[in-house]
């Protein structure tokens, strides 16, 4: 395979152009199987222990992680990065990437766990079905370790620039070693969900017992406008995971990390719903007891505990959908095994 013709050297360009690629390609140390548009499965020739899913662009305009994943694939294709674990790399929503939007018809990250089957067919529902099939095929062997990091960037700034959302998994709990690995990759805060969410990471955690996280890596920027040096620590940890290199991080790596538990969800109850703060208010901005958080013609929502922080506020969602999460700081011991 010459580098020019190899889809892995610029998988993003191949995906956006919807260029046809062979079903499989053989390389010196691994094989590549092109499962669907923007989805490639890499299998090393040597035995391996872990199945890694890396996904990005589930929201089409969150470009920095897409560029990072594209770069990692190119490094693998050029032999600069040794593939020693199985890897499923997913460019989440190519149509939304082309449209430079978060989504075309509907938020793809609310359609997993089969939710895409309920309601009219659209671009994101079709895509969720394709991604679910690819993941089920990849995670076929339950005896192997499973990791899924779903990489995003946030719409707004954040008091913690990089943070991970941990899917609700009351039976399993979270291992400190797993969180420490993310902290090593520059994650500054963890947000523990309180309920099922039908996000992609919840899908992998719930159905496949994977160590799965939604990973937020800073603020949205267009293709080409990202400073990937800001993601170097994340890239470094991903390279080591892919190359099966040992990563020595102890639980003490979590000493400076913040932990939050979701306390309640604010749903948009009426067209008149609005927040008490401006659109550019950062994630994890704190409110104190009695502060007004949001209001509509039907109700006013106040902070009703000592401290609450607000995450993912978005008053533009349809009525009935989640407009924000209210979270409270918690000690590590309360959320970890
Ligand atoms: Zn996102």
Automatic annotation (TrEMBL):
Residues involved in Zn(2+) binding: 59, 62, 152
Pathway: Amino-acid degradation; L-arginine degradation via AST pathway; L-glutamate and succinate from L-arginine: step 5/5
CDD domains linked to this entry: M14_ASTE
Names of the cofactor(s): Zn(2+)
Cofactor binding summary note: Binds 1 zinc ion per subunit.
Gene3D superfamilies hit by this protein: Zn peptidases
Domain Succinylglutamate desuccinylase/Aspartoacylase catalytic: 50-238
Domain AstE/AspA barrel-sandwich hybrid: 257-329
The EC number(s) this enzyme carries: 3.5.1.96
GO MF terms, alphabetically ordered: succinylglutamate desuccinylase activity
Catalytic activity field: N-succinyl-L-glutamate + H2O = L-glutamate + succinate
Pfam families xref list: AstE_AspA_cat, AstE_AspA_hybrid
Summary of the function given for this chain in its UniProt record: Transforms N(2)-succinylglutamate into succinate and glutamate.
Cited PANTHER family: ASPARTOACYLASE, SUCCINYLGLUTAMATE DESUCCINYLASE
Name the record gives this protein: Succinylglutamate desuccinylase
Organism: Shewanella avicenniae
């Amino acid at each position: 395979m010459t580098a020019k013709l190899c889809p892995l050297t610029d998988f993003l360009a191949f995906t956006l152009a919807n260029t046809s690629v062979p079903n499989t390609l053989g390389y010196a140390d691994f094989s590549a199987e092109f499962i669907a548009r923007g989805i490639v499965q890499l299998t090393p020739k040597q035995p391996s222990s872990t199945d890694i899913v890396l996904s990005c662009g589930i929201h089409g305009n969150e470009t920095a992680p897409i560029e990072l994943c594209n770069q990692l694939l190119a490094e693998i294709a050029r032999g600069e990065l040794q593939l020693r674990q199985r890897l499923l790399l997913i460019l989440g929503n190519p149509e939304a990437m082309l449209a430079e939007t978060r989504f075309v018809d509907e938020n793809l990250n609310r359609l997993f766990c089969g939710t895409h089957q309920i309601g009219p067919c659209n671009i994101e529902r079709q895509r969720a079905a394709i991604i679910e099939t690819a993941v089920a095929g990849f995670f076929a062997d339950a005896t192997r370790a499973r990791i899924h990091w779903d990489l995003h960037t946030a719409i707004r700034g954040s008091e913690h620039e990089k943070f991970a959302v941990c899917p609700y998994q009351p039976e399993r709990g979270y291992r400190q070693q797993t969180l420490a690995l993310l902290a090593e990759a520059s994650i500054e805060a963890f947000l523990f969900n309180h309920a099922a969410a039908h996000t992609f990471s919840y899908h992998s955690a719930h159905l496949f017992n994977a160590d799965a996280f939604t990973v937020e890596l800073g603020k949205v920027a267009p293709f080409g406008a990202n400073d990937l040096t800001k993601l170097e620590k994340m890239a470094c940890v991903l390279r080591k995971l892919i190359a099966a290199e040992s990563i020595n991080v102890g639980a003490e790596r979590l000493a400076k990390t913040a932990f939050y538990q979701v306390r309640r969800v604010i749903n948009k109850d009426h067209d008149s719903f609005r927040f008490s703060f401006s659109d550019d208010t950062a994630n994890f901005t704190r409110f104190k007891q009695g502060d007004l958080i949001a209001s509509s013609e039907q109700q006013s929502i106040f902070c009703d505990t000592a401290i609450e922080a607000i995450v993912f506020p978005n008053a533009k969602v349809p009525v009935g959908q989640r407009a924000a999460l209210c979270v409270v700081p918690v000690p590590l011991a309360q959320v970890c095994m």
